[in-house]
């Protein structure tokens, strides 16, 4: 990717890092949005710490969702596991059946307040895109390639490890990208059940009628989602070029 195309993202990254390192330096940006005596910069916690906790929560949930979704997709695309496809689809669709708030409401009585219910919600919401992309990728590997591999004496496991999985990686990364971006937005809702995310900043703004707080939380979440989306898009394009080589 050319430097010209990367420039906006580099600027965005520098702005995020600069804001988290010294929020007070941006007071002049948000000051017009608040009343005279109200704070213009979130002061009820450490913005950098909340950002790291937000990223960590999304990363953990997406990691576990990737492991489960990819494993299920591999299972149902093998001859011995094809009969489990309806069950697998039911499992990965659970998260899409209920809105995030409903998942949190169901999880809190069992897990209590904190990060647990939010991790469950993020995990469930991340399953479907990764599963569907992985399954589609594995079932669309050109038959002539796998037939040639069989003709060369490769075993099914070798064909999977050396041909099917590598060729499927770009689409798998595409599913992970979708799930991760969704996760960044969904994680903010977790603060309603005492999860440590950037949702705390937004909720604090809503409670005190402070537009600056709301914008700081929302803009940080949006910036993180954009940066991670671009990073995974670059990985996806690199894998596509490698696949075509």
Automatic annotation (TrEMBL):
It is found in: Cell membrane. GO terms for cellular component: plasma membrane. InterPro entries: ABC_transp_perm/SBD (IPR051204), MetI-like (IPR000515), MetI-like_sf (IPR035906). The chain crosses the membrane at residues 57-80, 101-128, 211-232. The keyword Membrane applies. It holds the Pfam family BPD_transp_1. One of its GO terms (biological process) is transmembrane transport. Residues 51-232 form the ABC transmembrane type-1 domain. Signal peptide: none annotated. Belongs to the binding-protein-dependent transport system permease family. This is Osmoprotectant transport system permease protein. It comes from Rhizobium wenxiniae.
């Amino acid at each position: 990717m050319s430097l010209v195309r990367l420039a906006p993202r580099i600027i965005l990254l520098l702005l995020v890092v600069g804001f988290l390192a010294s929020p007070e330096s941006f007071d002049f940006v948000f000051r017009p949005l608040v009343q005279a005596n109200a704070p213009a910069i979130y002061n009820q916690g450490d913005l950098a710490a909340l950002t790291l906790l937000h990223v960590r929560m999304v990363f953990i949930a997406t990691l576990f969702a990737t492991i489960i979704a990819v494993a299920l997709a591999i299972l149902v695309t093998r001859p011995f596991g094809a009969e489990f496809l309806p069950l697998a689809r039911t499992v990965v669709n659970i998260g899409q059946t209920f809105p995030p708030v409903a998942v949190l409401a169901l999880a809190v009585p069992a897990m209590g307040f904190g990060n647990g219910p939010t991790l469950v919600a993020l995990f469930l919401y991340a399953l479907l895109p990764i599963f569907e992309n992985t399954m589609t990728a594995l079932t669309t590997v050109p038959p002539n390639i796998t037939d040639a591999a069989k003709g060369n004496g490769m075993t099914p496991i070798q064909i999977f490890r050396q041909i099917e999985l590598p060729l499927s990686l770009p689409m798998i990364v595409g599913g992970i990208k979708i799930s991760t971006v969704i996760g960044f937005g969904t994680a903010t809702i977790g603060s309603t059940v005492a999860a440590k995310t950037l949702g705390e900043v937004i909720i604090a703004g809503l409670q005190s009628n402070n537009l600056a707080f709301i914008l700081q939380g929302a803009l940080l979440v949006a910036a993180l989602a954009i940066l991670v989306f671009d990073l995974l898009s670059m990985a996806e394009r690199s894998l596509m070029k490698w696949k075509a080589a």
